[in-house]
Design brief:
15 helices; Aminopeptidase; alpha/beta; 8-stranded mixed β-sheet
């Protein structure tokens, strides 16, 4: 995937804009001119042409770019389609642009091979500078993809705990989990209620890493390893890909790996609320009233609004340590997908300054995230006649907003908090972004943390 030994022979990758192509062709031999013409290369974005030398070997590769080229994905088509070999980028791009292109190359080499091996061997790209950083970003996204792509049969709460424990061992972090009926004894009643119907015990998974004197950041991830919808059973077409409903957990574990690899100066605490929302005689029911860790009571309007239930106990726990910042990731609502589509994470915050920081980080990282309003008047949609609030609005409007307002009930006004509601899944193939599990918002959030804490 990546080559760091500059002494190894490499083939140049040369970007070419359509307006530059004529000038390039004029400087070439008649053989190369004919080759480009026969290849019908017009320097369109995503296209490329292999230019041979006199021996018939590849001398260099021309690839098309345009004014809207995203540098992160500029080399992704090449990584997917070039012959096996070693390559290097020759371009007057900035260091940041080259770094982003290298990340996209690495992500384009991704293959999920747990159950089906591929014969393809990816070509390698020379990266001499900041290779650790580039590899760290690629590894973090690959971890998210691998976890989300793994079927529920092999990615239940205990499997998420195994991944978290392995990270803890690798980075000398502290690992802890509370599972099964111990969740009741330790006061995580909503997490227990959602997961109690499954033979796979629900659990709260925790990691701690870093220097306690550094600013404390808490990451909270929704880890619903499979979501049937509970007694409010999902239709089959909506249940098909619910192995991805632990995408929030995958994101916080991938982000934690990135933070620890690059040694960001924070005191990190990670909470994964892991459960299997199954159906049995012990399933929680519509109309039940649960008492949350915070003491607030919640009437269950819909058992398919379970993600906010497992998150609310973890958010309460995270807030008890008064962190400088809490960020949660969750595949929470279809309403967010209706609002911004499947490829853009929606986010909410309780702090205007934090909103501005996230927008800046989104621009810097070239990863789009989009704010939706936490419109407080919609809180009335969650009013219950017999409890402090409902777990979802029966009328259905503004579903992403009401979900965020529900979570907001469990975060102190004095704690800066951001909530990311994302798909964690690519519905279509794009260069560097195959169908299947995907990290969404991870790069922007890491940029946010770097901006805030790396001095």
């Amino acid at each position: 995937m990546f080559l760091t030994d500059a002494s190894i022979a490499t083939t140049p990758l040369i970007p070419c804009h359509k307006k530059e192509l004529k000038s390039y062709i004029k400087q070439q031999s008649s053989t190369v001119k004919r080759w480009i013409k026969q290849a019908d290369f017009e320097a369109k974005k995503g296209s490329f042409c292999l230019i041979p030398n006199k021996k018939g070997e590849i001398d260099h590769v021309l690839f098309g770019i345009d004014n809207e080229t995203e540098y992160r994905w500029a080399l992704s088509t090449l990584a997917e389609k070039l012959p096996l070999g070693h390559y290097r980028l020759e371009a007057d791009w900035s260091k940041e642009q080259q770094q982003q292109a290298a990340i996209g190359w690495g992500l384009a080499c991704y293959q999920f091979e747990r159950y089906k091996q591929s014969d393809r061997i990816a070509p390698s790209l020379l990266v001499e500078k900041k290779s650790k950083r580039i590899k760290a970003f690629v590894a973090a996204v690959k971890l998210v993809r691998d976890l989300v792509n793994t079927p529920a049969a092999d990615m239940m709460p205990q499997d998420l705990a195994t991944v978290a424990k392995a990270l803890a061992n690798q980075f000398d972090a502290k690992f802890k989990q509370i599972k099964g009926d111990n969740l009741l004894r330790k006061n995580y009643p909503c997490l227990h209620a959602v997961g109690r119907a499954s033979s796979h015990e629900p659990r709260l998974i925790r990691l701690k890493w870093g220097n306690p004197s550094d600013p404390k950041v808490s990451l909270v991830g929704k880890g619903i390893c499979f979501d049937t919808g509970g007694l409010n059973l999902k239709p089959s077409q909506f249940m098909r890909f619910m192995k991805k409903d632990m995408g929030g957990a995958a994101h916080v574990l991938g982000l934690a790996q990135l933070i620890m690899t690059l040694n960001l100066p924070i005191y990190l605490e990670v909470f994964v609320s892991a459960a299997d929302n199954a159906v049995s005689s012990d399933s929680f029911r519509p109309g039940d009233v649960l008492t949350t860790r915070s003491g607030k009571t919640v009437e269950i309007d819909n058992t398919d609004a379970e993600g906010r239930l497992v998150l609310c106990d973890a958010l309460t726990k995270a807030g008890e340590a008064n962190p400088d910042l809490i960020i949660d990731f969750a595949t929470l609502t279809g309403a967010a997908r209706v609002a911004v589509g499947t490829e853009i994470p929606a986010f909410f915050t309780n702090n205007d300054a934090l909103t501005a920081e996230i927008n800046q980080a989104s621009f810097q990282s070239n990863e789009v995230v989009w704010q939706l309003p936490m419109h407080k008047p919609y809180r009335s949609y969650l009013d219950s006649d017999i409890a402090d609030l409902l777990n979802s609005s029966p009328q259905g409007y503004g579903g992403a907003i009401t979900a965020a307002l529900y979570l907001n009930e469990f975060v102190s006004k004095n704690t800066k908090w951001a909530h990311f509601d994302m798909m964690a899944w690519n519905n279509r193939d794009r260069p560097g972004r195959p169908k299947g599990g995907e990290a969404m918002g991870l790069l922007a959030v890491f940029q946010l943390l770097e901006n805030r804490y790396a001095h």
